Amino acid sequence: MRAGAVQYHVDLAQNILTTALEHEPLQNELFAQLIRLTSGAMPYGLQAWKLMALAIPLYLPKQYSLLWLLRRHIERWSAMALEASGSRETSVEESESKMAGYCGHALERSLRVGGRVEGPSKFEATTMLSRDPCATKLPLCISVQIPSGDYQVIEFDGSTEVGQCLSSLCLKLGLRPALLSGYALYCDTNPNLILLKGRQKLCDCMTAWERQARDKNHGPLTEAVVSLRLKLRMRHHWRAIAHEETPMERLLLCHRMAEEITMGQFPMSNELAEEICALYAQMNFSDCSKIISDSQFAKLTARCYPKKMLEVACERTLRMNIQQNWTQLVGVTPTECVRMMLAVLRKWKFFGSYVKPAREKMNNSQLIYIALNDSGLHMLSSKQMELVRSFPYHKLVSFGEFHGDFMVTVTRETKDDEETPRERLTFAMDPKHVEQLTCHVAEYMRCQKLVWKMSAMK
């Protein structure tokens, strides 16, 4: 089939299923027609089965009698796959019976986890309609970028939640469960990262991303534009159970902190930055050769050296100092480099914090950093990143977006009875940062007690 014809059928399936999702009375009619089209009397039953496989994760018939009929219809056709092994059944009928088996599995999944809030994405519809989804129970796959820069592929279906994908990814990489390791999946919108919640369906996230890309881009929607870019990133860092970190967690933590250093969100002196850069070089490239190549130097400065310091540094002197520190690490294994790097970086009180720049509106719009960690919300100075004020989570009365700014209300102790016991602080921030900061504060407060209970049970 021509590419244009495939795209026509994909767009048609998307429109049909999305329209029925928005108009509930059409859902019963859709399934009634799909049952009729897959009854064996039509020459294009396989295409109707694939459309049913796309529809079942989205919604199910609201009438119990129609739902009962759908289950019996799928069970009857699924049984044909067993009978086909002992008979000379045509390949078309056998393919339809296999698709019915897949629909039966999708139906049980949808009954267990619930329906969706978004229609099928272009990627989901193309995969289901143009390929055979019966080879596996999880026919869809997407790559996730991990902090080291490598990619890991995860498999899912129309009913898979983000939390399930995250759990399988942690298991593959050798990480602790997401609650303890603190990792989460983010959507990379360049330059912002949007946290994906565990109860969201991954296919819903893909559809929402595709719709945003369609609204923002006026040109042709290529696969590179509409495809969802996922990143695995540390959301929480629990200092009390840091001793339980796995070797893979420590390695990924080094890459994450190198990224924070590059963004200028970690206090650094010139000497410390050069030593950390040398450790990072030994960890990635092993022993130093006689001279640092241009590609190695470019990679090191791009991944593990503060951008602001790099703009004013002398490249020749910097290259020489990094090489001098690197040659002193000959024979040191990557594991030892990870241990040494974390031992130095953990000395900072706010190691592992979620940091975002902001301007305090009540103090002449002074530039500061807001840092979140397991002890509370902290205000840091912009130059040396020293602590200005700190608020434990139990003192937060309210927090969130207010007229485009991030506002937090905290309780305070007052000596004068006339003073209010509450203080309101407002910070000017990027709207995306406001949304994500609000989400991360809520997640820290929600997960804090759960982590304490789980760590106390050990």
UniProtKB/TrEMBL annotation:
Name under which the protein is recorded: FERM domain-containing protein
UniProt keywords, alphabetically: Coiled coil, Repeat
MyTH4 domain boundaries: 1-129
Keyword DNA damage in record: no
InterPro entries, per database record: Band_41_domain, FERM/acyl-CoA-bd_prot_sf, FERM_2, FERM_central, FERM_domain, MyTH4_dom, MyTH4_dom_sf, PH-like_dom_sf
Sequence ranges assigned to domain FERM in this UniProt record: 140-452
PANTHER family: MAX-1A, PLEKHH PROTEIN
The keyword Disulfide bond appears for this protein: no
Superkingdom per UniProt: Eukaryota
Any matching Pfam family: RA_2
GO cellular component: cytoskeleton
Origin species: Steinernema glaseri
Gene3D superfamilies named in the record: 1.20.80.10, MyTH4 domain, Phosphatidylinositol 3-kinase Catalytic Subunit, Chain A, domain 1, Pleckstrin-homology domain (PH domain)/Phosphotyrosine-binding domain (PTB)
